Amino acid sequence: MAAYSLLPSAAFVKALLLALSTVWLLPHVAAAKHAGVTRLYNFDIKLANVTRLCHTKSMVTVNGKFIGPRITAREGDRILVKVVNHVQNNMTIHWHGIRQIRYPWADGPAYVTQCPIQTGQSYIYNFTTSGQRGTLFYHAHISWLRATVYGPLIVLPKLGATYPFPKPYKEVPIVFGEWWNVDTEAVISQALQTGGAPNVSDAYTINGLPGPLYNCSAQDTFKLKVKPGKTYLLRMINAALNDELFFSIANHTLTVVETDGNYVKPFSTNIVLITPGQTTNVLLNTKTNFPNATFLMMARPYATGQGTFDNTTTAGILEYELPPQMGKVPIKNVPVFKPKLPVLNDTSFAMRFSRKIRSLANAQFPANVPQTVQRRFFFTVGLGTSPCPQNQTCLGPNNNTKFSASVNNISMALPSTAILQAYFFNRSNGVYTTDFPPNPPVKFNYTGPPPNNTMVMNGTKVVVLPFNTSVELVMQDTSILGAESHPLHLHGYDFFIVGQGFGNYNPKKDPANFNLVDPPERNTVGVPAGGWVAIRFLADNPGVWFMHCHLEVHTSWGLKMAWIVLDGQKPNQKLRPPPPDLPKC
């Protein structure tokens, strides 16, 4: 079997394992001379000692690096990543934004599409970038391990293809994350046991560095050195566990050109809002002449919930290179400018910003929005409660409950085996049921006073869709435990955001205002706090696909569900079989 085939034979896997055992990250990725090459990466999941904020801790990493190494490919390439687990935690990796056409075996969410890679075991993730380009990323997809296991996945256009915007002088990943002085696995374990809200992070980071606004952190500051009169493409990724972020660079305007790997109509802004799970590419035009100043780039949270959050600010430095004729200017004599960011709960800015994003929708990059709908769904998303176990005091909203979260009042319980394997081998009994409610079981004033009963139901229920079904899904925030923004991520698909608004969705009036011409196409959307969002997609990718809130605390509490898209009639519309090295539970 050829090396470019999606499903390697057992012999090829053995040969590949041998090859990958001697291959490190290949340095010549960007220099490939032809399209459709295969790129090999080796990810050793291992502990490493990392120091930030004068605090050293041992944490799970990719290849001992924090943040993880960059993967770079071109549209149409095949990527093979051998992941070897050297730590005591189970591990999976999700390639966030890769559609994984007909091959969810490489998608990564634990107990949804695969069993985890256990200690001492390995798995080869085998996927293509066919029909995709832009800024994506990868992260662990089990428990809270993505706090430290994440990195950029950059898909460049095909050789000879150009960007639909001015060619940048340089491209720079800007990856937002969090720093925790403590072990995040202990944080979520304690929270789930007590039923209370988990502790929050100690700092935000830019490319793994908290920056100079934190104590004992000036030496851990990301610096972007630029030349005057140049255009830089900043590839921004929010890999933080639990926080949406505002971002700005002092005295500079940014031009948004891409979101979640899809080109958009360019627009200028001083501030970008980016939720966990989202990526945003912006052009930064530097000043024509040396400004004799430095400029802070800062990010701090957009927080809408009632719970505690990390109310700190991370900063990097935009530093202009000195012209040779100026010699050296002492840094202490150079003024430093700070950007102004919105207030922490500025929901109106969030809505205004999201409404500016429109698909490019031209002949080369069309917006293929489903114009008709075959299946309509209405999902409530939000927090709730579950009972406290007998003889235990819980730290939820009151002493008799635990915090929980749900979709249509179903708080998803992950099974002990992968849903995808149970589906493919027709062994669903005892693993999942296909009766996920298409509408809320009980109607109420979703954004008004909370109902008397805030208890959720637990279950492993999925929605089943025939192949090529056109779907419209309205997701409605609830105020049961306070209105809150929820960044919802759908695996295996990009979708069109055709409408959004505040208050309760009105099915008779709101569709009249839907944008079916050039809506943004994304894989992660922020459901507005106290509002709703409507998306459409064509179910043309068979398999099992996870959908969940990308605030990790809400996923842990159950704000997640899964779709099963059935096979089509043609051979190229059917789910491919699993690889021979698929991990076992």
Write the SSE topology.
Layout: H1 10-20, E1 38-52, E2 55-62, E3 71-74, E4 78-85, E5 93-96, E6 122-128, E7 134-140, E8 150-156, E9 170-179, H2 184-194, E10 203-206, E11 223-226, E12 231-238, E13 244-249, E14 254-259, E15 262-269, E16 271-274, E17 279-285, E18 294-302, E19 314-320, E20 336-337, H3 347-356, E21 375-387, E22 401-407, E23 410-412, H4 419-424, E24 457-459, E25 462-465, E26 469-477, E27 486-490, E28 495-502, E29 521-522, E30 524-527, E31 531-539, E32 543-549, H5 552-557, E33 560-565
List keywords for this structure.
585 residues, mainly beta
Protein architecture, described:
8% of the residues lie in helices and 37% in strands. The chain contains 5 helices and 33 strands. Strands 10-9-12-17-14-15 form a 6-stranded mixed β-sheet, with no helix packed on it. Strands 11, 13, 16, 18, 19 and 20 form a 6-stranded mixed β-sheet that branches.
